[in-house]
């Protein structure tokens, strides 16, 4: 099965509890005002991968990570492929965190079997679209106050909120890559 992905970060501490393998899926039909990932909206951009290739990469990192995180774009627009990946990952004891602009209630009341499989294998669902007028960087991993943490398993029930983190990676070719959540105006003062 194929999945269209914009970016993969094989190990980060900025997108969920512990060290995580993160997958930014390509394609989003929500188009939130102020979205930080507008380059992920176009459904035909990014790169197409076989889910087996993604699973192999996760397996190679499994001894170094606590789990995987799906971000977007909108993961539920590629529900079949995401469901296949999260189903396999859970068999190996890794945790699953999924970001979505949809509301949990809408997803859970639907009839799509792949959506049900994702929800059944997800430990934490962060739901709700980004709302610029509710900008709130005080909570980990989210950008606006309306976004909710839905705990779908007991794995992180005792989770204590932590501060947002920002990773800056400087590559050998000179590229600078930032990952995480921070105030963009504050970041601009660094340069």
Succession of helices and strands: EEEHEHEHHEEEEH
Proportion in helices: 10-25%
* DSSP summary, beta strand count: 9
Global mean pLDDT: 85
- Overall tally of structural domains: 1
Low-confidence stretches: none
Largest sheet: 7 strands, mixed
* Content of β-strand: 25-35%
In which order are the strands of the major sheet placed? 3-1-2-4-5-6-7
Spatial extent as radius of gyration: 16 Å
Keywords:
single chain, two-stranded antiparallel ribbon, 23% helix, alpha/beta, 191 residues, seven-stranded mixed beta sheet
Short description:
This protein is of the alpha/beta class and 191 residues long. The chain has one domain (2-189).
Written account of the structure:
By secondary structure, the chain is an alpha/beta fold. The protein has one domain (2-189). 23% of the residues lie in helices and 26% in strands. The protein contains 5 helices and 9 strands. It has helices spanning 51-61, 79-91, 104-109, 113-120, 184-188, and strands spanning 2-12, 20-25, 47-50, 67-71, 95-99, 124-127, 148-151, 166-170, 176-180. The strands form 2 sheets. A 7-stranded mixed sheet has the order 3-1-2-4-5-6-7. A two-stranded antiparallel sheet has the order 8-9. Strand 4 (67-71), helix 2 (79-91) and strand 5 form a beta-alpha-beta unit.
